[in-house]
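Support reply, case 0932

Customer input (verbatim):
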Amino acid sequence: MEETAAQHYIIGDNLRHKAFYDDAIDEFQKALHIQEPLLGEDSVPVAKTQYALGLALRATKDYKRALYHLNNATSAYEVLHKREKKDNGNDKAFQTELLNCKLNIARTHHSQGVDFQRAGDYDRSIADHRKALAVRENLLGRSHLETARTYYVIGCALSDRGDFDEALAELRRALRARLLIFGKDHLDVSEVVANMGTVLMAKGSMTTTEVAAYKSTILQSLEHENEGDALCRKGDYETGMISYRKALSLEEQSLGDLHPTTCDLYLRMADALGQIGDLEASLLEYKSAISIYERLLGKFHVKVANIYNKLAGILLDKGEYETALSFYAKAYGIYDSTLGNHDDTKQALMNIRLAAAKERTAKDSMDMIKQAEEDHNDRRNLAAAVAADADKAEEKKPELEAETPAEAPDVI
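Our regenerated output:
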């Protein structure tokens, strides 16, 4: 039976690579029908088949079923990874498979988002792209080409929906990444700059001359920001802060101090201040970013949840465990409702448990300290009472009359 399933898998994989997707899907399903009851859902062959089936379904644009099987594959590989780590201490087992699963989940959300956008369903398009972005930022970083592509399509979808300010913020992120990847003279960079100009004109808040000036300003701003990033990576946070403030000043002059394009800079400054230990100043920068996002995006946006997480981390470092716990809980609620069973959601739940444990430990410690202080005071009071009783007893003793020495006899 196991050999039969393996043959179905091999035939299906060959068909998938030759783009005979429907026939491949049929073979993979036959393989799974044998493998799951025989080997279990968390076996390597089942995980491989689920993954391949998900890829084939995505190729046919059956995104819902593709995501179902890719998520099943991810869950199986996570179990296998934990098992291998526990049994053999191998922390790297199945990491490549997990990475591929998660990246292809992101690609599936991206493809589905593009289809929704073409159909004019911008809300669902943006929701799918944000799910893709959460994976790509986490696994690839903010300066990767796939991440930059996601920023760009989100910006376009937001612009199509009429959310021009938020669209500019996403396009700015796309521009920053493409500048780092291609340099300022590349066509992909020019494309984003031109699109930002289109968004500004559609918004209607600038003249043609002002839009042209902003195109130059945004490139200068990003030069300062990238310079700040480079300095911070070297550990020179204070000089990095100077570069960030130069970038922030340029953005505020063009778009005002409550625009989404400034949020990334507030967050970078907050991170830098946290690194040099100025937690109070770091909190202020995080709160500046939160005030902008909450006003423009509402309190239940993924970007707001990201800042809640960072803010909670600073509060945890300061020992304000109860407040940190409340921010972690807010972040978890947003991730759970917007991203579902996602790594960020799982991490947020772990953060809640960590903060709750620290709060309990701190509370227990305070109770112990309080009890120790009370015991110490009781002992002091008892010692004082004993001393007072001894003094009183001493006062009550009858005084002995002093003996009068006998007169010496006269010597004759």
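We compared this against your earlier run and they match. Two observations from our side: DSSP finds 16 helices and no strands in the chain. The radius of gyration is 33 Å. Please reopen the case if you see a mismatch on your end.
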